[in-house]
Design brief:
The protein has helices at about 35-50, 65-70, 95-110, 125-130, 135-145, 160-170, 190-195, 220-225, 230-240, 255-260, 270-290, 290-295, 310-325, 330-335, 370-380; strands at about 5, 10-15, 15-20, 55-60, 85-90, 115-120, 150-155, 175-180, 200-205, 245-250. By secondary structure, it is of the alpha/beta class. An 8-stranded parallel β-barrel has the order 3-4-5-6-7-8-9-10, surrounded by 5 helices. Pfam families: Aldo_ket_red (PF00248).
Amino acid sequence: MLYKRFGRTNLQMPVFSCGGMRYQFKWQDVKPEEIPQDKQDNLEATIRRAVELGINHIETARGYGTSEMQLGRILPQFDREKLIVQTKVSPVANAKEFRKTFEKSLAYLKLDYVDLLGLHGINNDETLNHSIRDGGCLEVAKELQAEGKVRFIGFSTHGSTEIITEAINSNQFDYVNLHWYYINQWNWSAIEAANKLDMGVFIISPANKGGLLYQPSQKLVNLCQPLSPMVFNDLFCLSHPQVHTLSIGAAKPSDFDEHLKTLELLDKTEEILPPIIQKLENAAIETLGEEWFKTWDMNLPNWEETPGNINIKVVLWLLNLTLAYDMIEYGKMRYNLLGNGNHWFPGNKADKLNEVNLQNCLVNSPQADKIPQMLAKANEILKDKEVKRLSQS
């Protein structure tokens, strides 16, 4: 395993982390005796495999159902000082509730402290305010830090680059968990802002939200040769020194195997990556047209400023991926979450285009004339049954 300094925490962080949202039994709390033995055995085998590989960063959240409870049966069996344990608790209006929820997490984990506590889901102005206002959840987190129950404090986010950057520039956090990978590089400026303040940078879900890369389309497989799409994406992310660790959301012990192929290639990125990136760009241009490829996202309104709250940027992005790389399963998964994902995936689908007039909000877009028909095309291709966030399933 390779390790990087995790910003101002000075922790030696493995470049892969063991994310805890796919190996648990259920997304809701249950009584301990309701957890089937085979589900517990699988989680324990996954953790043992991670630690055996040197992936000693175990990451979970209060919102991940039985994950913490199940980890509490295995983590105390390891040398505590050799583990980096992170959990996350969502900021709420009542900071006392935040403390109460954290104490529940710690009890489930059966640990005296966590190395990293993330404020989970600083996605909009409200959750940012719940976190950093006087008397807010960040103050409670710092109290927990003073009590020795937390070593370092960060935040996780699915929010806009603007919200993420505002939270980073408060200079109140030691690290950030955020989305950034080949198919979605919108948050690069936030990563740069975090680097300036010597914060740790943890990439959320590069194999799942980064494109369902454990079940890639054949076209994507062909374009990423000689690498698998998963190894290409890992290599792309880790070739940037500003990125410290990628989450592997392992559901079983063998889920680490493909990612590990990345490690021996890290000193060859300048040789390996450019030809693959060129193939991916050429395929997109060939399918979408060069003008659309280069200008589709220029001067788009945000979803709050758009009639019907259509999330134009996300809808067009998903259409582009579907057309250019045959990523239809990924496109459907994300598209049908719109309207159901609240502040974790905000805005609406383009299924009510005939009820709105987008002319005024698109006045600054070079693709104003084409965008309505592309939105209609996206809805035609991607509309499927509604999808809920995993924690709501």
